[in-house]
């Protein structure tokens, strides 16, 4: 009996020691984030990973702030300004900046994003089957600007402008792009104007537990606006959040993209990457139309550490009649989140399984 009590006491001491070590590790992580950040800026080394880029190393800064006077700040959603500089082991250079501004006690919203990149990449052909893979390299500039005004409770409407210019300076010899038969294979300038509507009833923009977030857009790319290609594109991004209990959340997304006219391959509807169908290379499948369904289950683990399980299904098609449930591509995986600030900004690590095993490391939630 005495021996059993001693053994139990030793096990309890060992468990207490393990918990103390874990607490120290999390405490060290919290202190490190606090030391490299300020009250409004969060600075972290930008160590990212995705199949499209391999390992990326650089710097990332995120400013989270509230606009308005002291009385209205508590009623206005937080605005954000992320800045990123990355160099990847696939010799890609990416410089990006984005601003989300919530103004006038959430009655006005402005979003703008600019990306400069030197980007060696892979083209896998068009359609729901891989024809062949070939490497190409492009230098591109991307920019968009949208402004929304609240027209009803949770409903925002406004204009959107989009521009992209590509200079493709390297193609695979005797490949599909070198043949010149693929629209956009000789580079392109896109310029389009359209209308965007958001239906947003989320209780938190970084970590929603309830509500919906639907983004609907219609874009017209035309020579009148300085575009090399004339086409129309509709995108419907529908998201819903439901709290299972006080701590666990289910997030769901249905995403559709439809294209009419002749669009360059860079701007076709596509699936794959860190946002749509983790577990598939970005742009692995692309065509005029695409649809993706995704869901996540989120639960806390320990202190600022959370866990997610996710699954997705999607496909592309040249015609709407080409969508077929039996041709859906499937993916699933799990990941971890580490909360960086009080607003809910997360560090994200995901492991996904689709037509490949893929590891992702970045910021913010996918859905």
From TrEMBL:
Q: Where in the cell is it found?
A: Membrane
Keyword annotations for this protein?
Answer: Membrane
- Name the InterPro entries for this protein: Bac_surfAg_D15
Quick check: keyword Membrane in the entry? yes
Q: Which residues form the Bacterial surface antigen (D15) domain?
A: 186-363
This entry carries the following GO cellular component terms, namely: outer membrane
- In terms of domain of life, where is this protein from? Bacteria
Chief location bin: membrane
Instruction: State what protein this is by name.
Output: Membrane protein
**Organism of derivation:** Cyclobacterium qasimii
